[in-house]
């Protein structure tokens, strides 16, 4: 089982999770992070670090967000690895509680 970044991360991109990842499995896009399922070792360290609770075990991804399982795998192949935290997006706090943000995901 791997971990998946889901809807809450879109337009926020908090990177607290990146610093605790022992295998550098996070990849960064314009307004979203993904986890490479081939690299993730299921350590769970990132889950507690996410301030918007956007990271789920693959089996626990909410039904209405299951598309993010495929998106993490797909986009991890296209986006560069991120290994150090950085500031979130400027309006991250405004977007943190918004639901159903898939339409805002930038590739």
Q: What are the secondary-structure elements, in order, as H or E?
A: EHEEHEHEH
Average of pLDDT: 97
Helix content: 10-25%
What would CATH call the class?
Answer: Alpha Beta
Q: Please report the distance between the alpha carbons of the first and last residues.
A: 25 Å
Strand order of the largest sheet: 3-2-5
Individual helix count? 4
Count of discrete structural domains:
1
Binned strand content: 5-15%
Q: What ranges have pLDDT less than 50 throughout 5 or more consecutive residues? A: none
Main sheet characteristics: 3 strands, antiparallel
The helix/strand class is: alpha+beta
Instruction: Count all strands and give the number.
Output: 5
What is the structure about, briefly put?
By secondary structure, the protein is an alpha+beta fold. The chain has a single domain, classed as Alpha-Beta Plaits (2-Layer Sandwich). It contains four helices and five strands.
Keywords:
107 residues, two-stranded antiparallel sheet, single chain, alpha+beta, 3-stranded antiparallel β-sheet, Alpha-Beta Plaits
Give a structural overview.
The structure is a single chain. With 107 residues, this protein is of the alpha+beta class. The model has no long low-confidence stretch (mean pLDDT 97). Strand 2 and strand 3 form a beta hairpin. The protein has helices at 16-20, 45-49, 67-76, 92-95, and strands at residues 3-5, 26-28, 33-35, 55-57, 80-81. The strands form 2 sheets. Strands 3-2-5 form a 3-stranded antiparallel sheet, covered by helices on one side. It has a two-stranded antiparallel ribbon with strand order 1-4.
